[in-house]
Amino acid sequence: MDIDSQHCRFAERTRNFVGWFRALPGATFRSDLIAVQDLRAQEAGRGIVALANIEPDTVLFTIPRNAIICAATSQLRDKIPQVFDLDHDGATHPDHGDDDDGGGSSTEQSSWTLLILVMIYEYLQVDSSRWRPYLDVLPTAFDTPMFWSPNELAELQASALVAKVGKQEADRMIQDKIIPVIRAHEHVFFPLGSSSSSQILDDNQLLSLAHRIGSTIMAYAFDLESDDNGNKQPEQDEDDEWMEDREGKTMLGMVPMADILNADAEFNAHINHGEDALTATALRPIRAGEEILNYYGPLPSGELMRRYGYVTPKHNRYNVVELPWELVETELRQRAGGFVASADWEKARNLTQADDEFEESFVLERASDDPDSEGKLLTSAVFTGLPDELGEQFKAFLKAVKKVSNADLAVQALSDRDLRKGLYLEAVLGALQARERQYATSLEEDEQVGIRTGQLTRRQEMAVCVRRGEKEVLREAQSWIRRHMDETRNDLKRTQGNDGPGAKRQRV
Ligand SMILES: C[S@@+](CC[C@H](N)C(=O)[O-])C[C@H]1O[C@@H](n2cnc3c(N)ncnc32)[C@H](O)[C@@H]1O
Questions:
Q1: Neighbours of 440 (CB within 10 A)
Q2: Rounded to whole angstroms, how far apart are CA atoms 393 and 98?
Q3: For the segment 431-468, what is each residue's pLDDT rounded down to a tens digit?
Q4: What is the pTM of this model?
Q5: Is the C-beta atom of 259 inside 6 A of ligand 1?
Q6: pLDDT tens-digit profile of 176-227?
Q7: Phi then psi dihedrals of residue 298, to 5 deg
Q8: For 255-274, what is the mean pLDDT?
Q9: Which of 63, 195, 219 lies closest to 140 in space, CA to CA?
Q10: Banded model confidence at residue 373, pLDDT cuts 50, 70, 90
Q11: Which atom number of ligand 1 is nearest to the Cα of residue 143?
Q12: Can you tell me whether residue 46 is helix, strand or coil?
């Protein structure tokens, strides 16, 4: 298809979708104030843009709850009720969602897998699905790392994101929970008479369809808890798998029109979850021509890219980097090596790792205020310190070293707070430098690469943005430590000026 006909088709699908939406009983859409527009030139797909100045609190559109695609509204539930019987009261209704199967057995469904089944079912009904015009505007291709080639993933270098892509977990979930249900009910999913019946998909086709639908749900679905705060805001510190909060406590649904809104870390609209309908309202005055933006939460660039397949400069403030404990331990060992035998070091390590609180790695991040009630960010994000848990684990490790070897350094560091702090800061500083060296390019090289030079693909640009963001946090943490060390030294000098030199402190 040439570019012009692609463009026409895109516009036609948008028109059909908006027309279909506006005709839904109970739906409203302020077409005098807003329009769905083609934002592909900004690599943002469709979005909603203000046509006129909008007053705060204006209701921009309303989505009746029965227009949402979820387990409660799709006919699939009536056709295979046994699959939807989750043994919890109301577990499959978005209004009373409490769907906590905790991962469950390999075939047990959750709200996440049920929505995948529902969406596959609706997709395969083609023209008989009442959501057809909406399904037609959902994406068929994604820029989330799940779909990247090994070479593209390699651009992320040493980012912890690489281990979180979760392709294999997603494959397993689809093979365990999705394909068997479809195979057992082929007459339902591929009904006679529909155009899909002539073509019963094989397992590979179903796998790729389920990936596509799963990724759509990841980037588009809303959490439908009826507490007026249910806008999809996955918990940040949940497990890192693809399925994370999908196994959680709330009901998911696809909300036509609400999910045409793009989002940023500063935003101007909010989706309110009412009893019978969801409404999009303006949080502040919006000028004609401005895009209406929702909020996905304080996500670092890496997470934004993993879940939604895009990055924005405003999300950089939430960037994080993971510091593996192993690097801190290695640095400590270099400083204490002479004092502790290898076997004792191993014993101390085993002792520390046996602790329930033991962490393999620590997340470094800046302190940042939340957006205000108008969706604006008023202060800068600043690196203000290392995670407390890292300091606690450092102390626990020294205690373990003392216990197994009674090494001088550990004994002294545990009894002298200044010495311990100096040792800690030095070890973490060394570990941060070592962490930076794990990336194939330096921060300065990444800055030279530049974003939007036209030489990189979009995925490469996003990868550079993510790895560069992590290196920036590493640098800020190092600067913070150096400043902290200087301050400690100055404090010591002042104390020594008053009290004379302190033998213990000179060692730091
Ligand atoms: C809920 S949908 C929003 C509608 C979407 N643009 C569309 O065309 O269907 C979320 C997806 O929109 C895109 N998106 C959202 N906010 C964006 C932004 N600020 N910049 C670029 N893309 C964005 C991402 O691809 C994301 O996965």
A1: 11
A2: 36
A3: 999 999 999 999 999 998 865 567 899 999 999 999 99
A4: 0.89
A5: yes
A6: 999 999 999 999 999 876 666 658 999 999 999 999 999 999 999 999 865 4
A7: -80, 65
A8: 98
A9: 219
A10: very high
A11: 25
A12: strand
| pLDDT at residue 28 greater than cutoff 60 | yes
pLDDT at 499: 57
CA of 165 to the centre of ligand 1 (A): 19
Measured between alpha carbons, how far is 143 from 311 in angstroms, rounded to an integer? 11
Right CATH for 317-506 from 3.40.50.300, 3.40.190.10, 3.40.50.150, 3.90.1420.10: 3.90.1420.10
Bridge partners (DSSP) listed for residue 48: 36
Per-residue pLDDT tens digits for 380-415: 999 999 999 999 999 999 999 999 988 888 888 889
Evaluate: CB of 161 within 6 angstroms of ligand 1: no
Domain definitions of the chain by residue range: 68-254, 317-506
Atom of ligand 1 nearest to the CA of 264: 19
Q: How far apart are CA 293 and CA 309, in angstroms?
A: 16
Rounded to two decimals, the ipTM of the complex is 1.00
- β-strands 262-263, 293-294 pairing: parallel
What's the rounded Cα separation, in Å, for the pair 498 and 281? 62
Q: Determine whether the shortest distance from the Cβ of 219 to ligand 1 is under 6 A.
A: yes
Q: Hey, which of 308, 451, 458 would you mutate to test ligand 1's pocket, going by the most ligand atoms within 8 Å of its Cβ?
A: 308
The DSSP secondary structure of 437-496, one letter per residue, reads: HTSSS-HHHHHHH-SS-SSS-HHHHHHHHHHHHHHHHHHHHHHHHHHHHHHHHHHHHHHH
Q: How far apart are the first and last CA of the chain?
A: 70
How far is ligand 1, taken at its centre, from the CA of residue 172, in Å? Answer: 27
Helix (H, G, I), strand (E, B) or coil at 270: strand
Q: Which two tokens stand for residue 168?
A: 């294999």
Instruction: State if residue 44 touches ligand 1 by the CB under 6 angstroms criterion.
Output: yes
| Cα–Cα dist 448/3, whole Å | 33
Q: How many CA atoms lie within 13 A of 311 on its CB side?
A: 26
Task: Please provide the average confidence, as pLDDT, over all residues in the chain.
Answer: 88
